[in-house]
Amino acid sequence: MEVVLKTDLKGVKLFSRGKVRDTYDLKDRLLMIATDRISAFDVVLPNGIPYKGAVLTQLSLFWFNYTKDIIPNHVITADVSKFPEEVKKFSDMLKGRSMLVKKAKPLPAEFVVRGYLSGSGWKDYMQTGKVCGIELPKGMRESEQLPEPIFTPATKAVTGHDLNITQEELAKLVGKDIADRLRDASITIYKKASEKARKRGIIIADTKFEFGMLSDKLIITDEMLTPDSSRFWSASSYSPGGPQKSFDKQPVRDYLESIGWNKQPPAPVLPPEVVEGTTKRYIDAYEIMTGKKFEVV
Fold first, then answer.
1. Which residue in 224, 193, 199 sits closest to 291, CA to CA?
2. Residues near 92 by beta carbon (within 8 Å), at least 6 away in sequence
3. Residue span of the structural domain in which 42 resides
4. What CA–CA distance (Å, rounded) separates 62 from 119?
5. What is the DSSP string of 82-112?
6. Is the backbone of residue 111 left (phi > 0), alpha (psi -120 to 50) or beta?
7. Is 275 inside any structural domain?
8. Last residue of one domain, picked from the residues 51, 76, 103
């Protein structure tokens, strides 16, 4: 599979280009393509990570299917042979890394569920004894499991980091009924997925969801429970009291920290060993989580 850093579907209208995904407008539907781009510290790097887009797409499809009894999702099909004629000519590039999805109106927030005390949550706790305003027991350690998963929505920032908001602030944005449904669906999905992942030897420390409205129906969109949207840890090496080994782009972050990059564009080129190590982590996450061998489509 060729590394895809940017797509150009000539004759098809580009809907949006994010850090990883290129999305095309097919009128009442969208074509979402996961490229092999990778970002760190909010900057897209010049290298691609081979197979990354395919892993993100295949793992998302796995979880969308597994949780469809909890809430509907935006997937129509990932079978390229069923895509509209106007994009079928790009089949070789689209296979394995694209989804035809429903065109929902995105909600103006991201929806994070935290089951363990890590990342920005740990920093918040160290300063306030709380995470996003939610009181937690005293004396907790970094990476320790929370008494119960917590829901911590955040408003989407065009640039920089997102801003955490309370459930009450979310209710002002989207209405109390929708806000409550978002919280309940997010936590229910997290619990169901976490239970399955733990049996596979992976801890889902936290994860981020995106939702949209299709007419008046709430659906889940974008990606789901991937190494880009979640913090996955190995259960066998889990040891609270410090950072944990993650199935994500940690090798990229570690390398960039080690060379003293100022975290401003342009980003440096990653050496081959960092690229290979990151590819392996993404594929490992897919294979362990699904119990299937990752195959190049």
1. 199
2. none
3. 1-103
4. 26
5. GS-HHHHTTHHHHTTTEEEEE--EE-SSEEE
6. beta
7. no
8. 103
For helices 52-66 and 176-199, the axis angle rounded to 10 degrees is 110
**Per-residue pLDDT tens over the stretch 107-139:** 999 999 999 999 989 999 999 999 999 999 999
98 and 150 belong to one structural domain: no
Tokens 């008494």 — which residue?
147
Q: What is the pLDDT of residues 11-54, one digit of tens each?
A: 999 999 999 999 999 999 999 999 999 999 989 999 999 999 99
Nearest to 93 by CA among 23, 158, 29, 34: 34
Q: Please count the other Cβ atoms lying within 10 Å of the Cβ belonging to residue 269.
A: 11
Same domain, residue pair 222 and 111: yes
- Give the residue from 17, 24, 34, 29 showing the smallest Cα distance to 227: 34
Show which of 34, 69, 103 is a domain's final residue: 103
Same domain, 120 and 213: yes
Q: Give the sign of the dihedral formed by CA 164, CA 168, CA 169, CA 172.
A: positive
**Which of 51, 41, 42 shows the shortest CA–CA distance to 293?**
51
Q: What are phi and psi of 131, to 5 degrees?
A: -125, 115
Pair 233, 111 in one domain? yes
Longest CA pairwise span in the chain (Å): 59
Q: What is the total count of domains within the chain? A: 2
Task: Tell me how far apart the alpha carbons of residues 290 and 149 are, in angstroms, rounded to a whole number.
Answer: 23
